Amino acid sequence: MRIVVLSGGVGGARFVRGLVDVADPAQVTVVGNVGDDLEVLGVHVSPDLDSILYALADLNDDERGWGRAHETWNALTTVGELGGESWFRLGDRDLGLHLVRTQALQRGEPLSVVTARLTKSLGLETRLIPATDDRLRTWITTPAGEFTFQEWFVARGHRDEVDALRFEGADTATPAPGVLEAMESADLLLVAPSNPYVSIAPILALPKVREALARRRVPCVAVSPLIGGRAVKGPADRMLARLAGGTSPAHVAGCYSGLIDALVVDEADAGALDTLGDVRPIITRTLMSDGDARRRLAEAALGAVPA
Ligand code: FO1
To answer: Domain 3-140+170-302 falls in which CATH fold?
Structure first.
């Protein structure tokens, strides 16, 4: 079964890791968000692609959620001592990947080509494609002003309420090679349990990706990132409350209106399913606390397709 997953960073990476344990990794294509990308200290960082790469290669720091396990921070300490930019924490091991990627981009290689090479170097069978090779950046409008995603998320600790989002470049950006082909030949489309506004919306802001999803002939299943109306980590619940008016499964499904057939929701949300309309609920335990829990969640999402 060919599967395409639209994914953001931390939650999406955990989900994809579970998915490739229960499905053939070579049949899985992950389309990753690049709206969070940034240039810092002269390197290009693609946090969501890297979270997925590290999770698939078992190199990730499971507790922190981003970056690599057994990380050291010597380069960053030196940067700080020398008065450089150290607000965005790049570990020594992580930095190696950013150097390789940045050099390739500077040579003129598209992000999708570099990413495919990184995937291969790490010995992965799963395809990881950035949603676009073009520049796409998420901007967050708050009462304190407009910030790039990482300024808001990391530098300001996502403390500001979000009034609106803007995906710079999305109107003219085209999907990276392979994205539409993978979506069109998939047997199942999945939306990972990522923040609908900052992780999935930048991918859906590409008109061609949204159109491909809207005209799908195969099931599309989203996994809710909320448990009991609360985000496991991060600002998804606050954003849904403010921007959608609530944190029920229906509010999550509303972010994907016309684009999904089923929504995987946690048992804790099973009492609030009456307004889901055409979207079929799949109820399970969704907390990805360990490998077994991740695999169970992936199996629940796969269950939407008859074997
Ligand atoms: N998140 C933080 O909260 N603080 C950081 O300093 C930070 C650094 C960082 C470096 C590389 C990387 O791949 C991810 C990093 N993240 C950091 C996570 C990242 O900002 C977000 O989790 C994603 O962009 C949201 O999906």
So the answer is: Rossmann fold (3.40.50)
Percent of the chain with pLDDT over 90: 95
Ligand 1 and 8: CB distance under 6 A: yes
The confidence score (pLDDT) of residue 168 equals 98
Cβ atoms of residues 244 and 254 within 8 Å: yes
Determine the straight-line distance between the first and last CA of the chain, rounded to whole angstroms: 9
| Nearest CA, atom 13, ligand 1 | 47
Give distance in angstroms: CA of 46 to centre of ligand 1. Answer: 9
Any idea what the Cα angle at residue 43 is, between residues 140 and 123, rounded to 5°? 105
The rounded Å distance from CA 158 to ligand 1 centre is 12
| pLDDT at position 35 over 70 | yes
Whether 47 and 39 have beta carbons less than 8 Å apart is answered as no
How many angstroms separate the alpha carbon of residue 40 from the centre of ligand 1? Answer: 12
pLDDT in tens, 231-247: 999 999 999 999 999 99
> What is the spatial distance between Cα 24 and Cα 292, in angstroms, rounded to a whole number?
17
Pocket of ligand 1 contains residue 224 by CB under 6 Å: no
Query: Taking the model in full, what pTM does it have?
Result: 0.97
211 alpha carbon – ligand 1 mean position (Å): 30
CA distances (Å), 214 to each of 158, 174, 177, 280, in order?
31, 17, 19, 17
The residue behind tokens 């490998």 is 291
Distance CA 118, CA 165 (A): 30
- State the chain's mean pLDDT as an integer: 97
Q: Which of 88, 140, 148 to mutate to test the pocket of ligand 1 (most atoms within 8 A of CB)?
A: 88
Rounded to the nearest angstrom, the distance between the alpha carbon of 66 and the centre of ligand 1 is 6
Is-contact 125 25, C-beta < 8 A?
yes
Q: pLDDT digits over 115-173, tens only?
A: 999 999 999 999 999 999 999 999 999 999 999 999 999 999 999 999 999 999 999 99
